[in-house]
Amino acid sequence: MSSVSLVLCQPSDGHESDWSNLYMSAFPQDERMSLADLQAMITNKTMLLHRTTDASGALLCFSLVNPMSNFSLLAYIATDQTKRSSGVGSKHMAELLKILKNNYQSSHIGLFLEIEATNEPSITAAEVKERTRRLAFYQKLGCKRLCGKNCFMPSYSTNVAVRHVEVLWFGYGSPVEGDATIAGIS
Predict the structure, then answer these.
(1) Could you give the CA distance from residue 156 to residue 33 in angstroms, rounded to a whole number?
(2) How far apart are CA 74 and CA 136, in angstroms?
(3) Per residue in 92-112, pLDDT tens?
(4) By CB atoms within 10 Å of each CB, which of 3, 24, 65, 185 scores lowest?
């Protein structure tokens, strides 16, 4: 990937079809919001879409972030399946963190996200390996585990079990551990 010129983490109004196609293929149905809801949030700027492309404009990676009252939430990030493990996701995330820190450092404590729990009971060895790899991806970028408690993520579909998740965060400078809201859950 180093020989390919990247256009990193460009803001988008969401009208390209490439990110929505990748979104639909990268996430299971029960983890996906409707495209109409996402587009409305992007249009209203309650969800930020950033796209990383190659020099010709082909989508390589995208992220969707909710700016909340005093923190940001990474709702989704996906890299084109043919470009995974090439470094493009790491470069996109590093640039996204710079952008968010620059825009929100004075009002937000950091970027939070959830991943499927690495210690969930009854998952296969392959699932443990994949989840541990995902955790290592974020930790390599400076992400920390928020707390050791079991957390659950509800499904967007009916009759689907909740998912065991771990909450992770990237600080923007202020110590997250000292935040009164975080102290109540960690």
Answers:
(1) 7
(2) 17
(3) 999 999 999 999 998 998 999
(4) 3
